[in-house]
Amino acid sequence: MWVLVVAIVLLGLKFAAIGPFATLSWWWIAIPLAVVFVWWEIIDPMFAISQKRAMREMGERKKERNDKARKALGMRSRK
Q: What is the domain range of residue 5?
């Protein structure tokens, strides 16, 4: 998740006191971390977004595996 990457980069720059990030308010670092927390703890479980994506990917892998097995057996693949 790109917001987590932004939060980690901001956190690293703040701790290293690099350039203008040394004087940056901690709120600018806390906001992306709070967004990530809300996403993972509330939004994602509520709508099961990650689980749906994982199930779809697993279904695609299963179809590819079945098609490969059918081709190896000389059978036509399902469309």
A: 1-47
16-48 pLDDT per residue, tens: 998 898 898 999 989 999 999 998 888 777 777
Residues 52 and 19 in one domain: no
pTM beyond 0.70: no
Residue 16 half-sphere exposure toward CB, CA atoms < 13 A: 8
Determine which helix (DSSP H) or strand (DSSP E) holds 10, and give its type and residue range. helix 2-16
How many domains would you assign to the chain? 2
DSSP 20-74: GGGS--THHHHHHHHHHHHIIIIIHHHHTHHHHHHHHHHHHHHHHHHHHHHHHHT
Q: How far apart are CA 65 and CA 69, in angstroms?
A: 6
Burial of 29 (0-12, 13-18, 19+ CB in 10 A): buried
